[in-house]
Amino acid sequence: MVVELRPCLVVTTHLGLERVAASRIKEELGVEAEPLPGGFQGLVLVYCQGFDVDLLAKELSSRIVEAERVLPIYRAVKADLEEICEAVRSIAPQVLGESESFAVRTERRGHHNFTSIDVNVKAGACVQSVRGNPVDLENPDKIFWVEVLGDTAYVSVTPGSVVFRKSYDRKPNVLVHLRKIVIGQVPYLADIEASYKVGVRIGRAVQSFEVKELVITPYTPVDARPLASFIRGVLEGIDSRYSIQTRSYSRKVHRVPVNLFDLYQLVRDYRERNIPIIATSTKGRYVGEVKRDVRRIFEDNDKVLVLIGSREGLPTGVLRFSDLVIDVLPGVTLATDVAAPSILTAIAGVLAEENND
């Protein structure tokens, strides 16, 4: 008698790795795996008989690095809203505690007379009809997954913790602090091409951190050509990164404005307006030793000037007129093109710890 194998796991992968993942699953776990079922990309169906699907899912997750998400199949039904509803309703009492929250996530592949949102709404209502469990779309205790592949809907349930999240309760958000920072950057002046390339990297870096403003700060008479090349690179770097951010982020992106000001005059102006100045130098205190001072400055002020040197570093007079002089990486002299992201990362790290002390 031939035992018919049925799908027991839905595995998602990066596009192009379906066959690799299926091969590794067969080799490591000794079960049948079908890459690209129905021609649908990014999927592998695992077939098994007599296995505990939860244990198999856990084993696969721990051994197959190509697997992005591993979903044990609890029900396989026709791709129909009513049948999906009955499936989740029958599963809910077995997997949901009385006070546990839940969410429904649907991935639909193929052509149907309903949308993924339709499934989420219908299935969510059907789960709630069992015990009235609360819906939590951000941090649910359990997630009901509905994977629709053509004419079939596979229903799974996992802990909400299987999804890696960008944010969660008590996770600090350093963006509010970064928006206070005005970077005073001494320009990198060498040959025209080198000045341009360093400018691009600095522009991309400050835009990535979305600081309040970038001020380019020469402090001696300089050759206009490499300065112009550096500025052009900065502007192009900001434009390039900003373009990517606006396409990728769901929130509004702050475009970093760029100004030009003599370093000494900038320092004098900020001192007169009582805006704190943090200078960065290998002669400064290790940032970890003065983290309380850094936090106090950011907590008490809406704007903070952070000065970054180039090649020869910042002039000593500027250090003397700063509220704090910090060294973010003792023993290492940072190259100009990596100084800004390294310094901003160090400051953000200190500020992110404020709720964890």
What does this 3D model show about the protein?
It contains eleven helices and 14 strands. Strand 2 (32-35) and strand 3 form a beta hairpin. 40% of the residues lie in helices and 22% in strands. It folds into two domains: 6-162, VC0802-like (2-Layer Sandwich); 175-355, SPOUT methyltransferase, trefoil knot domain (Alpha/beta knot), CATH 3.40.1280.10. The chain has a six-stranded parallel beta sheet, with helices on both faces. A four-stranded antiparallel beta sheet has the order 2-3-1-4.
Secondary structure layout:
Elements: E1 6-12, H1 18-29, E2 32-35, E3 43-48, H2 53-63, E4 69-72, E5 75-78, H3 81-95, E6 102-109, H4 116-131, E7 142-149, E8 152-159, H5 175-178, E9 181-185, H6 192-209, E10 213-216, H7 224-248, E11 258-260, H8 263-272, E12 277-286, H9 291-300, E13 304-308, H10 316-320, E14 324-327, H11 336-352
Parallel strand pairs: 6-7, 9-10, 9-13, 10-11, 12-13, 12-14
Antiparallel strand pairs: 1-3, 1-4, 2-3, 5-8, 7-8
Give the number of domains: 2
What spatial form do the alpha-carbon principal axes imply?
Answer: elongated
> Strand sequence of the main sheet, in spatial order?
11-10-9-13-12-14
The amount of helix comes to 40-55%
Number of strands: 14
| Separation, N- and C-terminal Cα atoms | 65 Å
Q: List low-pLDDT spans.
A: none
> Treating each run of at least 4 consecutive H or I residues as one helix, how many helices?
11
Beta content comes to 15-25%
Name of the top-level CATH class of the largest domain:
Alpha Beta
Can you tell me the CATH architecture of the largest domain? 3-Layer(aba) Sandwich
Provide the CATH topology of the largest domain.
Answer: Alpha/beta knot
Structural class: alpha/beta
**H/E order of the elements?**
EHEEHEEHEHEEHEHEHEHEHEHEH
